[in-house]
Amino acid sequence: QTTAPLSGGPMVLLVLERRVVGDREWMRLLLPRRPNGTSGWVLSDVLRFRRNPMRIVIDQSDRTTSVYRSGALVLRVRNAIGKRETPTPFGRFAIAEKIATPPNGFLGPVVMPTTGFSETLNEYAGGNGRFALHGTSLPELIGTRASHGCIRHRNDNILEISRLVSVGTPVNI
To answer: What is the pTM of this model?
Structure first.
């Protein structure tokens, strides 16, 4: 689909590889579907491209989220990751959407669903089981294994992260 399902914005996908076959250019794209890491080839002439200098790295052992611009660290903050029974998946993903939420809600002021899915939950709270980066109404749990697979941040931190990155930003966990 060309429209992001929650925000209604354009679907932005991460380019994994470029290949020329004959006189046609093909791009392998990371798809927001199960299983995690699923990709597909698309002719490049139906796509629009933009470079993204930003990268997010989630370190589950240190419980940190690092944001890089052109390889230089611009922000490092603490996070909370998935519980042992609902772990945060490892792998390469991308920010799929950015959604403003009620600032005093459980998920904080911003939710950024990724292209990745929980490996233990088929759905959560009526959603399709995608995990996200978001804020929290329980900041005392930052630094722990507390979530259903999402990466939680203090609300001020998720606001700063969301200002730095855009839809399509790669996320390495």
So the answer is: 0.92
Percent of the chain whose predicted confidence (pLDDT) is above 70: 98
Tokens representing 85?
A: 């029974």
Instruction: Say if residue 35 is preceded by a cis peptide, omega within 30 of 0.
Output: yes
Contact 53, 116 (CB under 8 A): no
Closest to 129 measured CA to CA, from 106, 109, 107, 149: 149
Per-residue pLDDT at 3 exceeds 80: no
3-state SS, residue 130 = strand
Contact 149, 87 (CB under 8 A): yes
How many Cβ atoms sit within 10 Å of the Cβ of residue 43? Answer: 11
Helix (H, G, I), strand (E, B) or coil at 162: helix
Q: C-alpha distances in angstroms, 119 versus 9, 34, 60, 61, 131?
A: 26, 9, 16, 19, 10
Q: How far apart are CA 31 and CA 48, in angstroms?
A: 16
Q: What is the token pair recorded at 72?
A: 């230089």
Q: Which of 121, 112, 124 is nearest to 87 (CA)?
A: 121
Token readout for 9 is: 């914005």
3-state secondary structure of 30: strand
What is the chain's mean pLDDT, rounded?
A: 93
